[in-house]
Amino acid sequence: DLGSDRSSLLALRSAVGGRTLFWNATELSPCGWAGVKCEDNRVTMLRLPGVALSGQLPSGIFGNLTRLRTLSLRVNALTGQLPSDLASCVNLRNLYLQGNLLSGEIPDFLFTLRDLVRLNLASNNFSGGISSGFNNLTRLRTLFLENNQLTGPIPPELDFPKLEQFNVSNNLLSGPVPEKLQSFQVDSFLGNSLCGRPFETCSGNATLPSENNKNNGGKKLSGGAIAGIAIGSVLAFLLILVILLVLCRKKTSAVDIATVKHPDVEIPGEKPEGDVENGEYGNGYSVAAAAAAAMTGNGRAEANGGGVGAKKLVFFGNAARVFDLEDLLRASAEVLGKGTFGTAYKAVLEMGTVVAVKRLKDVTISEREFREKIEAVGAMDHENLVPLRAYYYSRDEKLLVHDYMTMGSLSALLHGNKGAGRTPLNWDIRSAIALGAARGIKYLHSQGPSVSHGNIKSSNILLTNSYDARVSDFGLAHLVGPSSTPNRVAGYRAPEVTDPRKVSQKADVYSFGVLLLELLTGKAPTHALLNEEGVDLPRWVQSIVREEWTSEVFDLELLRYQNVEEEMVQLLQLAVDCAAQYPDKRPSMYEVAKRIEELRRSSLRDNHNPEFDHIK
Ligand SMILES: Nc1ncnc2c1ncn2[C@@H]1O[C@H](COP(=O)(O)OP(=O)(O)OP(=O)(O)O)[C@@H](O)[C@H]1O
């Protein structure tokens, strides 16, 4: 019962310690203790990641915690073998023990826990072989055994019908990769002496496991071979990249010339849809060709149905009318990416102007409604919004023309190119981006209680040359049909939003909270590690903050900067407030922008920036 659950937890604490403030064990019921969750008055979840537990897990503890479904003791300093009474936790689904100093063989009793879905024993000192007993765990979706001392062959009969993620890299394994595991990428197996797909084929004796078991010399040789292969593949990859780049350049310039010389480039009439995404109009082709294909189709259609005026770009503002449809059609274009609402292109006009053109798909509303809504979008004017310059509407083609943002999106900046030579985003830039984005959204919300963005995420925060944030894609959620229900928005979407077109300002605030968490943790809301534990970014952060282990959540790049942790914690708190489960608990964007302004002001003041002396 709950009483024995409680005493087990207390016994665990006295056996392996942990940060002393960690559980407020004064409460009678353990269900409110940090890291503990109950259902039906029994402990079902125990999550104690990274809290400096150390020593050996004693037996006599888990025998009582029979309702446990999730046990996470990852990233601690636990030693020795796993206690055998863990076998009593027959309801266990998720077992995370990675990042400890556990040793001995992987115990057989684990294979009696048949409900296990996620098992992570990586980065410990487990030794011995991989047992074919793993086959009993038919529900496993993830199995991580990397960075241990496991030896011998992987049993050829291993087969997990539901396995999605698997890793045994950096062990002392040898022999062939079992057939049923060959579909996993090479990274899952690296740092062993394995052969067969995805590696080279096995030579005769490599299939003899007994010989390989003690074959240390062979291991070293293979290590060298693997290094060789790795270096070789990197070089080959670079070579291919260079060739591709050269080819791409040639291709783009060729298209350039073709379209410039023949502005009325003939487009085969059989392709009235001019679908860039599926046809041969691929990356590097001109947006003109793609759009023109659609428009020649249109032209005909409209000649039948009338409406000559429709073939015009409609501009917003007065000074903006610096190019026309012809110019746009002649521009060379490159695909920037495919989004929920269509494909975005960078188009370089003849006179050097660069614009971003978005071809909308799945526009199901009427022309009148479209024009009305897009006019409202075009009327938005704020320094933290990407301005909509013009649009084009015909039956088959809907184009939006925006200013091109040279530095790309925040998403690319945070998660792209993590390699050397990349300038890390410091706190000042990140908090300035947070503030800029907040002001942009605040402006949108100030246009009326029903005005919301509907699709806030890091790929929609674009940056100017000087890293000023501009919010893009506003208002589009109301233009498209239900078929473009964005899957990858999932990580940002507020829990109460079921129809992506029916969004609210409070839902925007939730998405913005997730965006702040992304800025602070450096983790994309769709991060694999998070998915592995089946939580979303807000819940992951909340669980760690609750456990008073806050600095574990921050992006390592940010921790390098001293003196700003206080502000980081304040922004984290704001992010958690924004991502509150219940819409009413979330602050307004007005309040959000104000709080970011304040915390930025205090950090600038603390760092004695003379520019801000007047604020004191
Ligand atoms: N005005 C712009 N300037 C520079 N790059 C842009 C511009 N608009 C879009 N992009 C880039 O093009 C890519 C595709 O953008 P798009 O808005 O079509 O899709 P998305 O933001 O990934 O998803 P969604 O359609 O759901 O917003 C983005 O990653 C973004 O970096």
From TrEMBL:
| Location of the Protein kinase domain | 330-599
Q: What is its main location?
A: membrane
Q: Where are the transmembrane segments?
A: 225-247
Cellular component GO terms, alphabetical: membrane
Q: Where in the cell is it found?
A: Membrane
Mention any Pfam family matching this sequence: Pkinase
One of the entry's Gene Ontology molecular-function terms is: protein kinase activity
InterPro entries found in the cross-reference section = At_inactive_RLKs (IPR050994), Leu-rich_rpt (IPR001611), LRR_N_plant-typ (IPR013210), Prot_kinase_dom (IPR000719), Protein_kinase_ATP_BS (IPR017441)
Q: Where does ATP bind?
A: K358
Alphabetized UniProt keyword annotations: ATP-binding, Leucine-rich repeat, Membrane, Nucleotide-binding, Phosphoprotein, Receptor, Repeat, Signal, Transmembrane, Transmembrane helix
Protein name, as recorded:
Protein kinase domain-containing protein
